[in-house]
Amino acid sequence: MANTVKEDLSAPGMTDVRRARLLLERDGHTCVLCRGDKVYADDRAGIAPMMGFIGAGVDLRGFSAADRIVGRAAALLFVLAGVREVYSAVMSKGGAEVLEAHGIAHSCTTLTERIINRTGTGICPMEQAVTGIDDPHAAYKAIAATLERLRAQAAGQGGAIGGAAGMDGAADGTAGKSSGNAHSQAVDDSGMSNAATGARGDAECKDRSATAAQEG
């Protein structure tokens, strides 16, 4: 790994996908896209980078991409963006099939059956969102709707936690009222943060079976 990361990015014959992979590994990004001297890099988790690029109208046609985890959801977004080649540290068989079907060159370090959620209790919600969907435009809409639902759930959970803490603080009486209010606010902030982290964690999609998966 050390020799790979130190490789000269400007070396003759350096391909776009190789450059993207080296930047991904060297700088710790979660998603990197390269085409010649143009480079787009993002550090957000899950499919947030590609959703952001597409939503902002960034022209990624002809770019090569390197990502940490690519399932069907991410693969359909790469298709929608017009990416020509994809490398991923972990790629699901479903993701590879999508890229193959659209003539996009792809490679990975680990090929796995599926992408599961952060808690390991089921399939990644982004993968669930695109179940039965083959059209990239429809996939983008389904993913956006799922992300919005997760954000709404996170906000609702945070508010409920804060409200309950505030009621407990008020019951302490006049002497403890200000302390109870302060405690309520602290728990409210923490609750919203934890709930939001949980939603992002679901979207991040970690694969617990990577060590048992075959090499791609």
TrEMBL record:
InterPro entries: Cytidine_deaminase-like, DUF1893_TM1506-like, Hyp_TM1506
Positions of region (Disordered): 172-216
Listed GO MF terms: catalytic activity
Listed Pfam families: TM1506 (PF08973)
Protein name as annotated: DUF1893 domain-containing protein
Organism of derivation: Candidatus Fimadaptatus faecigallinarum
